[in-house]
Write a structure and sequence with these properties.
Elements lengths: L29 E7 L4 E6 L15 E7 L4 H11 L3 H8 L6 E5 L2 E12 L2 E11 L3 E6 L7 H9 L9 H13 L2 H20 L4 H33 L7 H66 L22 H22 L4
Parallel strand pairs: 3-7
Antiparallel strand pairs: 1-2, 1-3, 4-5, 5-6, 6-7
Length: 359
Amino acid sequence: MSLFTKLYHPPGTAPGSLQAHPKRAEKPCRFRTVRYDEAHFDVGEDSDFIPFDSTTDTEGRMTWLHAQGRPSGEQLARIGDYFQLHALALEDIHNTGQRPKVEEYDGQVFVILALPHFADGEVTVHQVSLFLASSYVLSFCDDPLDPFEPVLKRLQQNIGKLRSRGSDYLLYALLDAVIDQGFPVFEAFGLEMENIEEKIIGNAGSETLVQLHAMKRQLIMLRRVLWPQREVLNALMAQKNELIKEETQVYLRDCYDHTIQIMDLLETYRDMSVSLVDIYLSSVSNRLNEVMRVLTVIATIFIPLTFIVGVYGMNFGSNSSSPWAMPELQWYYGYPFVWLVMIVIVTGMLIFFRRKHWL
């Protein structure tokens, strides 16, 4: 996960510019147009944006335009001209990696959210941009996977209140779909932490510390992109905007509660990652202490043995004129006697260490 993911134009570029960015990887974009009311539902997909045909049979229906991928600057410009979108909002869609936020324009509400994914031990974050107006909702997502498939399915099958409510309720459904993506992400984080904890309790190597460091880094980055989403929901609830009806505020409060739960999970896993690092360091220190204890016991056992063989290696036994010569060197059983003494010493020391719980 990159430390800096925001795309930006060179300093001094005119605001609202949609020029191509050298680091902006092109992704094929698909446009889905959904038009519905309580009795009708129509959906169409295309590789390019096609302005709607405002015929009488579709008049009064709600419109949802979804762009999956990264629209080109020319496509964004045409969408902006058709829906009268603000140039600064289009620039934020074009330059992904924006901080989650909510902006009000003339007759529109513009929302940016972060969509996290966790796969193969890596976290990726994609930008989701939403426009709310009285008769339509626009959504843009640069993720290869469509996060709004469940919402589309509910519309097709006429499940719930989506087709009987206004555009503000559709906006809530899209917000909820994006925010709830945080729960499977942190569920995967929890499983990853359990695996790392088992490794640490067992016999973790240096690669486990690398995993822990990567996880802490990803949690920090997730906090940076997910924390502002609580402010987004708070702002939507606090604003007295005629586009968001009073009955929808209740659902936005539930969505806000989900952001709080996700942040609680995030903070919990951050604390757990710090604790796992401490446990890892303690485990390494304990293993080192165990090794040092064994080596110390071995060295302590051989100290008296080294002393004995050193004494009997001084070769003073051939001095027959001195009363201080070593008579044991001339004994018939001198050699096995010395071995017996050393074995007794080792056995006694091992018994002593065992009773002291040093072994």
